[in-house]
Request: fold
Amino acid sequence: MDDNAIDALLERVLAPWVRALGMKPVEVSEDSATLRLPFSGELRHSGGVICGQVFMAAADTAMIVAITAALGAFKPMTTVALNTNFMRAVRKGDVLVTARVLRMGRSLVFGEIELYDEDGRMAVHATSTYALLD
Reply:
């Protein structure tokens, strides 16, 4: 998938508020995707750090791209589980989000997502399960 195909996919399948995060592709392979979550002060809560909800949406979005790349085309899917561990607060800077397909079954896909702060330190680690809907 090239950048234009990924941008078109995100435009077509994401809710408007998730699209507003402005995630952009960095690198996509046959079973993984890395997206850049650009920093915005609007993503921070009153404690001054980026909200966990933002990171969960970013992880989910990157996994959709990774699954689509692994399948070779978008297929309707839904998140069954997203287990997220917040390991480090992020106050500023872009975040790199890398999602990997660990196992592609007939109806379930298992994945892992890592989010890194601007200094290359892991801030969030998540595991996921998706159901393919058709």
The two ends are 21 Å apart (CA to CA).
